[in-house]
Amino acid sequence: MSSFAPARGGLLRRLLGPVVDPAVFDFWLGLLNRSWTWDRPLARVLERRVESADAVTLVLKPNRHWRGFRAGQHLNVGAEIDGRRVTRSYSLSDRPRADGRIAITVKRVEGGKLSNHLCDRVREGEMLSIDAAYGDLHWPVAGEAAGLFLAAGSGITPLMSLTRAWAAAGAPGALTLVYWARSAEQLCFAQELQALAQAQPRFRLHLMLTQDAQAPAARINADQLVSLLGPSEGWQHLQVLACGPGGFVDTARQLLAPRVQRFQAEAFSPAAPIALDEVRPVTVELRRSGRSLTLSSGESLLSALEAQGLRPPSGCRMGICHSCVCTKHEGQVQNLHTGEREAEPGSQLRLCVSRACGDLSLDL
């Protein structure tokens, strides 16, 4: 039993709902079983395995409040660190399984508070908070057209989920995976991918090591893709999924999107930031809390609010998961990725990728 029965809904939950404080309920039931909650998804760490020189895979067992995922999606994961809950977004690296287990593969990064905590300190048996899966990266018509997956660094994780789902479905159609990493020690899933390439004739694997001592591979470019895929005139049948840093994704889009049947991409870091006009102090009114703050217009609203000691909900910090969305009552903001400005009253903004262009009023 992984969660308390009333949290499943039905008559008992409807009767108790108006008088139950979920936080109090979770505290007392957690003394009996840490995975029992009123309605909050949690996951127990079942297994921890080293995946590469700087990454680990955590196999998790969610409680019954978690509603599953589709291969290629992400979820927000949270843990208590030094008395404060920290939440970040991670891709699910395994396919959906009948036993309900899920996996995330986390890379150690400089200054990454939660990532480094998960890599270095979390052990089997510990509980993590999780949220609903999200994300639109998927292979909708596998088998009808050849698939081409392009992964750079941590971008391999959602594409590994999709590759495993493709293999479990009987390899419907041809699939090519091109995977860039700095060195062999930083490759994740290398043995599994190489074994799949040997066993499955429909799967082609290219491992591109950009800092290899003997024969360093180039970063993604047109000549390289032609050597791997053949002349661009033959690319029109490809369905391409790309994931990696913003610059990698932008280059892949420029080279392939006009020439292929379908192109999807997700970046786990922004491309080059937009050029900002004058940076100055602005006044941000927080209507719900009744506070008024002076913030810099030169950084994201999320970072500026956190610097003032506030902790708005957040996850990916890249504008993907929408955990930090809030209502803007008045004022103009600018998207730090696209440069687009928005001034409509009552609109929704993502704090992590929006900056204030002037004074604002937010529903916080």
UniProtKB/TrEMBL annotation:
Residues 38-140 form the FAD-binding FR-type domain. It comes from the Bacteria. Residues 280-364 form the 2Fe-2S ferredoxin-type domain. GO terms for molecular function: iron-sulfur cluster binding; oxidoreductase activity. InterPro entries: 2Fe-2S_ferredoxin-like_sf, 2Fe-2S_ferredoxin-type, Beta-grasp_dom_sf, Cbr1-like_FAD-bd_dom, FAD-bd_FR_type, FNR_nucleotide-bd, MRET, OxRdtase_FAD/NAD-bd. It comes from Roseateles asaccharophilus. This is Ferredoxin-NADP reductase. Pfam families: FAD_binding_6, Fer2, NAD_binding_1.
